[in-house]
Write the structure tokens for this entry.
Amino acid sequence: RSSAASDGYKRQEKDMMEALKNKNKAKAGALRLLISKCKNKAIEVGHELTDPEVIKVLQSAAKQHKESIRMYKEGNRDDLVEAEMNELRFVELYLPSMMNENEVRSLVENIISEVGASQMSDFGKVMPQVMKQGAGKIDGNLAQSIVKELLS
């Protein structure tokens, strides 16, 4: 994986042109969709997107693909699962690398001791800090389960 969404979505546009030249239709299609999502968001907010804003758009796209994969698996639509997984792989190329479980656990442990959390009722003090400090690099569901495990 590369450094975040460097230069907004310029790299994605360059990669899409390359994919078109190489007749890689799947990659070109996935990138075209990402670029249009970024452009739509830029129009919505009224300015060129910053790298963190591009990352949010990409994370949202990744989340949609994961949800689609889950639903298609439940519906036994393996053909569609495969297509979604391929698109998800292209999206993930442009996301910063995610923290692994040990890194998330370590971050959660540090925050729990910083805020003096000791029981489940402190969940609301811990979780926002975890998501803020791990912004863009943390899986919220994983973080939530680790916080619950450590506070119970």
Notes: The helical segments are 10-21, 25-45, 51-74, 78-92, 101-115, 123-133, 140-151. Residues 1-6 have pLDDT under 50 and may be disordered.
